[in-house]
Amino acid sequence: MASNTSQGSEGGLALDPMHQFEISRIIPIKFGGIDASFTNSSLWMVLTVIAVSALLLLGTKRIVPSRLQSVGEMIYEFISNMVRDTMGDEGRKFFPFILTLFCFILGANMLGLFALPVLLHPFTVTSHIIVTFALAALVWVGATVYGFYKHGLGYLKLFAPSGTPPIMLPLLVPIEVISYLSRPVSLSVRLFANMMAGHTMLKVFATFVVALGWFGVIPLAVMVGFTGLEVLIAFLQAFVFAILSCMYINDALHPSH
Amino acid sequence: MPQLIVADFLPQLIWLAITFGALYFIISRLAIPKIGSVIEQRHGRIAADVAEASRLKEDTEKAIETYEAALAEARASAHVIVSENRAQMTAEINKEAAALDERLAKKLAEAEVSIAKTRDAAMAQVTGIAQDTTEAIVTELLGKKPAKAAISSAVSSAAKG
Fold first, then answer.
1. B67-99 pLDDT, tens per residue?
2. Which residue stretches of A34-94 are H helix?
3. Does the CB of B39 have a partner CB in chain A at under 8 Å?
4. Is B149's Cβ below 8 Å from some Cβ in A?
5. Which residue has the higher pLDDT, B58 or B40?
6. Residues sharing a CB contact under 8 Å with residue B31, sequence separation 6 or more, in sequence order
7. Torsion of the alpha carbons at A68, A72, A77 and A79, rounded to the nearest 10
């Protein structure tokens, strides 16, 4: 779609709200024909890793926790409970993966909001469908492979829930198969669309602030409210992604529930 | 839409793999052992403290029980001692009262005897004094001594009269 900008009326500002999603190569790297350039997306991924690591590792190790420590412990216990509630004790081995998934998505979502506009151009890693799809595919393919590895063809029982009348099976099995196949799509599109929509909206309101002059106070106030909502959505989408991943892995652990 | 530029997919995927892998390594090797050990330590500490508190509470309850038992025992033994003492003292008082009564009765009897003796003696002397007085009066009146027999018969008849 159009990345050539629609120019604003004042001062030639780039008002294209999609401009923020563009990938720019900071350090071009090529291995043979493979493009592995360090882009602005890569930069924010690295910053996410640094921020999450700092949050989880820099806390103290006291019995009575310090503030930073208790934030890390809250995230740990939150995901730990989620893993136990959705997958039971067998799901314990997936706890590090789910915790990483949650922290990575939450960190990326949040950093996209709290960027330093002058020093660093804000960019949200999770506003790109390829990134969210890769994460969703990792979960989905991983769960599917694990399900077949653990239960063999018995994993296919997932598509015929126990207690279904046999006459319903011709109808039910296709529905279950379609719903299973659409999981990675829905998982990735949900996160990507939420992030993109939120940031696009914030950018659109930001252009209004400039365009309206003194009356720009009104969209500015709206933006403040939206930013609060975006913080909530950033957390909520990370949570939804993590808990759905838990459920998909749980299906692989216990296909006939 | 910049999200659909296929040429940008590969660098994003490669760096996603690198950073996600790095974060997985950091979280699984460093963060989870660190935070998990603190949480476990805290739970252990809390459990130990609760156990210690309940042990102390049990001790306290036991001490209170012992104290109450001792108190009840002391009260019972005090009661026994009091009633024993009372019985002993009553017996002693009774004994002493009896002895006193006996002594008093003896003294009374003795006194009565001595009173009787003294009275008898006094009475005997009264007769003698009367005879002497009679003799003296008669001697004074008549100028001669009357016969002893006459005096004594006269005194005794006067005493009877």
1. 999 999 999 999 999 999 999 999 999 999 999
2. 40-57, 67-87
3. yes
4. no
5. B58
6. A53, A56, A57, A72, A76, A99
7. 140
pLDDT, tens digit, 9 for 90 and up, residues A73-84:
999 999 999 999
In the chain, the amino acid numbered B15 is W
- State the Cα torsion A103-A106-A108-A109 to the nearest 10°: 180
Is residue A19 within 8 A of residue A5, CB to CB? The reply is yes
Structure-block tokens of residue A249: 């892995």
**Global ipTM:** 0.87
Taking residue A208's Cβ as centre, other Cβ atoms within 10 Å add up to 17
Distance CA B10, CA B21 (A): 16
Q: What is the band of A163 on the pLDDT scale with cuts at 50, 70, 90?
A: confident
SS3 state of residue A63? coil
From CA A58, how far away is CA B38, in angstroms rounded?
13
DSSP three-state, residue A131: helix
B31 touches chain A (CB under 8 A): yes
Q: Give per-residue pLDDT as tens, A203-230.
A: 888 888 888 888 888 888 988 898 999 9
> Which distant-in-sequence residues (6+ apart) come within 8 Å of A125 by Cβ?
A41, A44, A45, A48, A108, A111, A112, A131, B16
The 8-class DSSP code of residue A10 comes to S
Q: Do B19 and A46 touch (CB under 8 A)?
A: yes
CB atoms within 10 A of CB A105: 27
Contacts of B34 in chain A (CB under 8 A): 56-57, 61
